[in-house]
Amino acid sequence: MIKDNQKFFNQMHVVIDALVIAASYILSCFLRLEVLNDPGVGTLPWNVYLFPLVFLIPGLLLLYYAFSLYTPKRVQGRRLEFGNILKANTLAMLIFFGSLYVASVDDLSRSVVFMFYGINVVAETLVRNLIRIALMKIRKKGMNLKHILLVGYSRAAEEYIDRIKQNPQWGYLIRGILDDNIERGTMYKGVKVIGRIDNLMIILPQNHLDEIAITLGLSEYYKLERIVALCEKSGVHTKFIPDYNNIIPTKPYTEDLLGLPVINIRHVPLSNTFNMMVKRAMDIVGSICAIVIFSPVMLTVSIIIKKTSPGPLIFKQERVGLHNRPFQMYKFRSMEVQKESEEKKGWTVKNDPRVTKIGRFMRKTSIDELPQLFNVLKGDMSLVGPRPERPQFVEKFREEIPRYMVKHQVRPGMTGWAQINGYRGDTSIKKRIEHDLYYIENWTFGLDIKILLLTLFKGFINKNAY
Length: 466
What we know:
By secondary structure, the protein is of the alpha/beta class. It is 50% helix and 12% strand. A 6-stranded mixed beta sheet has the order 3-4-2-1-5-6. The chain has a two-stranded antiparallel sheet with strand order 7-8. A two-stranded antiparallel ribbon has the order 9-10.
C-alpha cells in the first residue's frame, strides 16, 4: 500500500531537493568566481561564499514545505508546482538579500544570488518533472498504487471511477464499492459492489486501505455522519465526493459564518474588482497590439471583399454579452448580402451557397473574426472568454442547457477554453458550455495567457466552420 512507502518517498524527495539546492548554489559560485570573474574586482574566497549553504539548504527546504511542495504529485499539477517553486525561491532570495544587508556584508557578489535563483528554479522544475514522469510510469505498471474503497453507488461514484480508469498514471486502485441498495456483485467498468455499508466495521480494522471515498447518493446523506465517524476511528484518510457536482463549482468558494461553513453555489473570480482591472488592462493592450500587427492582413482582406462581392465590408450582428446586455459584434462579411429574416434562421451548413469564395477561406482561418479586436477595445468583448451567441439562441439554450446563463457573468471572448479544445462551429453546445464554465470558475491571468498562446498555435484553423 502507498502509506507503507509514502514516508520513504517524501524523505528521498527532501534529500534530492537538498542536493539540487547545493549543486545550484555551487554552480552559481563557480560561474561568478571562475568563469565570469573580473580581475579588477576583489572577491571573497570560496569558503566564505559556501558558508551561506549552512542556512540556505534548511531554509529553502522549510519554504518548500510551507508552499506545499511535498504534496503527493498525483494531486498537485505541474503549473501549481512551478508557481510554488517560484514563490519559495523568490522569498528565499529576498531573505538572503535582507540577511546580507543586516549583517553588512558588502563583498559577497549579489550576482551569485541572482544566478542561484534562476538556476535553482530551473533545476528544481526539471528534477520534479522527471520524478513525476518516473512515478507515472511506475504507476502505469501497477506499482506504488493507492488502494481506495468507495462507500455509496451514485453518479459521483461512476464519474470518479471514469476518471480513475482514464488516468492510470494517477496510481489509484479501487478495491470495490459498498452500497445498501445495489445488489452485491454488480460491476461498473471492472469495479464490483462487494457488500453493504455496514461491512465497513469489518473492513476498516484490517487496515488494508489508503483512502475511503464517500460517494453516497443524495437520498442517502443521512448516513454520512455515521460513516465519517467510523472512518475517523480507524484513522484511514477519508474524502467526500458530492453527488451534486453539476450544481457547485469545481473550486467552491466557502465562507465561515461563526463556525458554520457556507458554500457559495457559484464563484466567479472575475467578479473581483482587481481581477477585472487586470483582465481589462490586458484586453486594451492586447487588442491595440493585435490591431497594429494584423492591420496589413485586415487591409488586404478588405480590398478583396470589396473587389469580389457587392455589399458592406463589415457584417454587424447582435450578440448577448456581459450581464445579458446585447451588443453589435463585428466580423468581415463572408456571405452574400441577405435579408435579416433569412439571416436569423440558423447557422451556416456545409457547402452553404450563401458563403462567398473569400468568405469560405476567412471562416476556415478565422480571419473574419479580426474586426472583433475593435469590440475588445470598446469593452463589449474580451480577448479570452466564452463565445457570444445570438439572442434567439440564448433564449433557446437557457431552457435546454443547465447553467447556460452563467457564461454571461463575464465578457464574451474572441477565443476561449472551449475553442482551443475543439468545440467551435458545428460542435456540441453542451460540451462547449462545460468548457466555458470551467474557464469562468477557474480563471487566472496565466490561464488567459495559455489560451492565447494555444490559439496562436492551433486555434486559427477551424475545421467545423462552414
